């Protein structure tokens, strides 16, 4: 068999791909570049969140260096997230520098997840950095519901951001968390709107991440139920289409558009997990739903050589768990993990 080991410039270490104990290759890295956000979605954050002091954050150069190590070790898809990634100062510099990995072919896709509030300003620059597809999180088209759900957000800003993104040639996918009693009756309208604009819609089940005021059980809406209700009005044809994430897609015959379902609660998809998550402080989480983590900031700062950080990454991947174990019920008031989605990066 041919030896596929390659050696990176200037590094004596073989750049073997990262494979976890369950033979899953780690090809997808999500990077939360800030824990701050300009919205406070009620299912995501508590109202009085305490944010990290700026000195704890990795610099943009350090984030670039860490991402580049992962890319050298086989990561092909990089998603920038947060918090809200577009509120991090000078964030376009990071997109600009990471785009060299697209040019070289080392990276297949550089993308981001955003709430869209700052997109109108940044859409063209994102496209110029080689970004082709973005995810915009939007749970409702009602200005009043949007304001309540985000605690103060302005829906028009997000809609203007989506317009700008499409004008800049970016493919937009809408992600909506399905919430009992909040947007459950609006899902068909959200879907028809998204499909009418040529955008996929992906629905997500709410996960028990971090302490929030409302009880999760009051928010949780199983997508099995949503799908069953949609089937009464629409014809859903199962698709093989995958975007490298956990969504399972159908084609809606009546609209012609694609609808995705992310079901961490009702159908666990961990067996095909190819991803790890890096926070803005350089903490690597091997699973969204587990507490175990590895500090990459110390080895990164300890040496100009990437050797120590690569070793820390290898040790972390060797501990990647088989999967998460989320439960939402009345008896269990504690979240599955203490950290909010805004810390780990959605
Ligand atoms: N600010 C960006 C955004 O709004 O897309 C990126 C970060 S946000 C944490 C990423 C995604 O996580 C959003 O789609 C949000 O709706 C989702 N999210 C946050 N908390 C969640 C939870 N507890 N369960 C499921 N999805 C959640």
Automatic annotation (TrEMBL):
Cofactor binding annotation: Binds 2 [4Fe-4S] clusters. Binds 1 [4Fe-4S] cluster coordinated with 3 cysteines and an exchangeable S-adenosyl-L-methionine and 1 [4Fe-4S] cluster coordinated with 3 cysteines and the GTP-derived substrate.
Q: Which PROSITE patterns does the record associate with it?
A: MOAA_NIFB_PQQE, RADICAL_SAM
Q: Which reaction does it catalyse?
A: GTP + AH2 + S-adenosyl-L-methionine = (8S)-3',8-cyclo-7,8-dihydroguanosine 5'-triphosphate + 5'-deoxyadenosine + L-methionine + A + H(+)
Q: Name one Pfam family in it.
A: Radical_SAM
Question: What is this enzyme's class at the first EC digit?
Answer: lyase
Q: Which SMART domains match?
A: Elp3
Instruction: State where [4Fe-4S] cluster 2 binds.
Output: 270, 273, 287
State where GTP binds. Answer: 30, 79, 113, 173, 275-277
Functionally, this protein is described as follows: Catalyzes the cyclization of GTP to (8S)-3',8-cyclo-7,8-dihydroguanosine 5'-triphosphate.
Stated family: Belongs to the radical SAM superfamily. MoaA family.
Extract the NCBIfam families matched here.
moaA (TIGR02666)
Know the name of this protein? GTP 3',8-cyclase
Q: Which organism is it from?
A: Chelatococcus sambhunathii
Per the record, the gene is: moaA
